[in-house]
Amino acid sequence: MTATLIDGKAFAAGLRTRIGTAVAALKTQGITPGLAVVLVGEDPASEVYIRSKGRMTREVGMNSFEHRLPADTPQADLLALIDRLNADPAVNGILVQLPLPRHMDEAAVINAIDPAKDVDGFHILNVGRLATGQKAMVPCTPLGCLMLLRDQLGSLSGKNALVIGRSNIVGKPMAQLLLRDSATVTVAHSRTANLRDLCRQADIVVAAVGRARFVQGDWIKPGAVVIDVGINRTDDGLVGDVDFVSASQFAGAITPVPGGVGPMTIACLLANTLTATARANGLPDPQ
Ligand code: NDP
């Protein structure tokens, strides 16, 4: 069996086009969504992300505001900037690029963002709302994975889903989203016993481990849908957390790396900014 390739790049491009159309419609009502991105320090990977976020934000017709602060910025100054962005009506979404320098308390910084503008969905209120089935801002990477899964499978109800990884930014919110869609969810992590056996039972595998080619092809249940969140730099270039070549022999459908989940993350950031703008203006959530 050879798996269907899930083209996240094309899906994300389609999503951005739909967002662009919705932004154009908002502009006729005098509303221009604005996304503020804050980068503290000079992490090269974050620089790359920020540049492409800014470009794509402008491409869909939104305003992009970039704030770069030196690595030794006192936390109080960052919190003061967040306060100003919270109060600025031109800013609908605020993203503080992680990781932050060590002298900062990441949770305190994230929880200082107005939850209504928390387009990363990391604020404790949004985490709680997602967990309790209330209207929330949902973290971008898992939201992108969910869109790809729904596109492949239609309903996820009753499917056995295995999430490998329990981070706050990917694994845990992914599990919540799958649960919300009535999948039967197992969350695996570094202490999990019999990961291979759990994987063999899964109709859906979402790998967010951070280890190159960790999930082996013969762990995959024939026909399963495999979503590879991993981005690992190796001598052979970027690879995922799934051994793509062997997994493609078993999976029904699989995301490539690059070109799978990665492009969905930024598209979902724009989708969240659009949603935040609609809510701020008393409009219904965009579809
Ligand atoms: P973290 O390092 O925060 O979490 C990794 C998780 O994997 C942990 O829960 C860890 O378990 C688990 N794990 C580690 N080793 C094993 C093992 N041997 N068996 C089972 N589980 C294991 O990573 P993130 O969640 O932030 O990211 C995961 C991957 O996704 C990375 O490659 C990252 O680069 C990528 N990523 C991609 C994004 C995109 O846009 N495509 C966005 C965000 C991340 P434990 O908790 O026990 O330590």
Structure report:
The structure is a single chain. With 287 residues, the protein is α/β, with parallel strands linked by helices. The chain folds into two domains: 104 residues, 3-Layer(aba) Sandwich (Rossmann fold), CATH 3.40.50.10860; 123 residues, NAD(P)-binding Rossmann-like Domain (Rossmann fold, 3-Layer(aba) Sandwich), CATH 3.40.50. The protein is 40% helix and 16% strand. It contains ten helices and eleven strands. Helix 1 runs parallel beside helix 10. The radius of gyration is 19 Å and the shape is globular. The structure holds NADPH dihydro-nicotinamide-adenine-dinucleotide phosphate. Pathway: One-carbon metabolism; tetrahydrofolate interconversion.
Task: Give a short overview.
Helix content is 40%, strand content 16%. It has helices spanning 8-27, 44-59, 75-87, 106-110, 124-131, 140-153, 171-180, 195-200, 244-247, 261-280; strands at residues 4-5, 34-40, 63-69, 93-96, 160-164, 184-188, 204-207, 225-228, 232-234, 237-239, 253-254.
